[in-house]
Structure formats: C-alpha cells, structure tokens
Design a protein that fits this description.
The protein has 266 residues and is mainly alpha-helical. It has helices spanning 3-6, 23-43, 54-67, 69-101, 103-116, 125-132, 136-160, 164-172, 177-212, 220-229, 233-261. The protein is 76% helix and 0% strand.
Length: 266
C-alpha cells in the first residue's frame, strides 16, 4: 500500500445520531402551503365558504392588532395557560418522581393515575364549573388537571428508564440516596420529562380553548367561538393562527430548556 493511501484521512464515524436543525425547511413548508391556499382560493377551485384567502386572514389579523383586541384576548389566555400549566406540570413532575422512587407510593397512586388518565378532560368542564364556579378558578383547574395526568405518566416512565447500572455504580461509591437522585436519576430522566411536557402543554392549549368557550368574555377561545357563531371565517382562522403560533412558541421554549439542561448529551 502506498504512503499516500496510508496517510489518507478517514472521516470520523462515531458522531452518533445528532439531527441538525434545518429551520428554513419548516418555514418553506408553511410558506408553500400558504401560497397553495392563496392560489387555490383566488383561482376558485377552493371555495371561499370552505377556506378564506390567507391574505384576508392576514388583513384581519392586522386589524385585530391595530384595534387592540389582540392583546385583550391574548393576555387572559396566556395568563390562564401559564398559571394552569405551571400548577399541573409542577405537581405532575413531583408526583411522577415520587412514584418512580417509592414502591409504596407507586402501588397507591399508579392505579389512580391509570383510572384518571383516559378520562376526556373536556367532559369534566361542567363538573369543574360546579366546583370552582364559572370564573377563572374552573379554567385554571381544568388546564392544571389536563396537564397533570400526562406529566405524571411521562415522569415516572422517565425515572423507570434511568440506567440502573449508573444507580448501582453510585451506590458502590457510597453516594447518599439524595445525591443519587440529584446527580443520576433526575439528569437521566430529564429527556423523558421534557418530552412529556411537550405533549402536556399541547393538551393545555386545547383545554384552554375549551375552557374559554364557556363563560369567558376575553380569550382566544372566546374569540374563536364568537367568530364561529357569526360564520366569520377570516376571524375564525385568525384565532386558529394565534393558537398555532402559541403552540410553536411553547415548543420553542421547551427546546431552549432542553438545550440548557441536556447539553451533557452532546
């Protein structure tokens, strides 16, 4: 073999599976769909009674912003979402960790969580109204409860999936129970917990809309309900766009937290 062949560099193959962000691809997909919808509605092969022109939706969104109604509806929705999701997620993570760490708590709470998890949370809205009234309390409670159950399931599943070899290694080095939980269990379970939060917060947005459609003067759900009752498709789709952007914002926030807390994986 020649010296040139021996000295030829070999590409590194041990980088692991590390997807690279390609944000422009997602933007291009959204832009393509919007252009197709605009062209289809202008050409007439998409009925205006089925789908409004994206340009008309954008004009409605601009009017909503200039009139100040955007913030009147968005402010209460964000407040309800943040408070309800924070309560449900914090309690859910705490209970999920306790279930994952304690056999007694697991035996007592897993059957209860399994019984509560499949219940459609929207169906419980009338019950929460009876318990907490038609004001903000019932909305917070519905969002918190809807966030709580999937967070619990994701959290104790993530704790269960922590490599037991690492835990035994920590025990062999004489680490205390608290140190093992803080330095091994929680970092190892964090990817699963954050993945569960993505689903839980998406559910929270869905329940936010449902809660605001009952007895709320302001909120994105109330705005969509008003637009639907008037069959105002431009306003209706403007509300849907706001919810979509809210979901993208929440997903981006979880992504930032993942990069901060899980940089040890790279």
């Amino acid at each position: 073999m020649s010296e040139a062949a021996k000295e030829k560099a070999v590409a590194f193959r041990g980088g692991g599976f590390a997807p690279r962000p390609r944000r422009w691809v997602g933007f291009a997909v959204f832009l393509g769909l919007i252009l197709v919808a605009e062209w289809g509605t202008r050409a007439g092969w998409i009925s205006a009674l089925t789908l409004p022109k994206p340009s008309d939706v954008l004009a409605t969104f601009r009017e909503l912003y200039q009139s100040g109604l955007l913030f009147k509806h968005l402010g209460p929705s964000l407040s309800r979402l943040v408070v309800g999701a924070a309560i449900g997620a914090s309690i859910g993570i705490s209970v999920g960790i306790l279930i994952g760490l304690s056999s007694y708590i697991r035996s007592g709470l897993v059957p209860l969580v399994a019984a509560l998890f499949p219940i459609p949370k929207i169906a419980l809205l009338p019950l929460f109204v009876i318990w907490f009234g038609i004001g903000e309390g019932s909305k917070y409670a519905l969002i918190a409860f809807g966030t709580f159950t999937p967070t619990v399931v994701a959290t104790y599943g993530a704790v269960d999936n922590v490599d037991r070899t690492l835990i035994r290694m920590g025990q062999s080095f004489g680490l205390t129970w608290f140190s093992i939980v803080r330095k091994i269990v929680l970092p190892g379970a964090m990817p699963g917990i954050l993945s569960g939060l993505r689903i839980s917060l998406a559910i929270a947005i869905i329940l936010l809309v449902a809660a605001e459609m009952l007895g709320a003067e302001y909120g994105i759900g109330a705005y969509i309900l008003q637009a639907g009752s008037l069959y105002d498709l431009e306003r209706l789709f403007a509300g849907v766009v706001i919810l979509s952007l809210l979901g993208v914002l929440v997903s981006a926030l979880i992504g930032v937290i993942e990069r901060r807390l899980l940089d040890w994986r790279t």
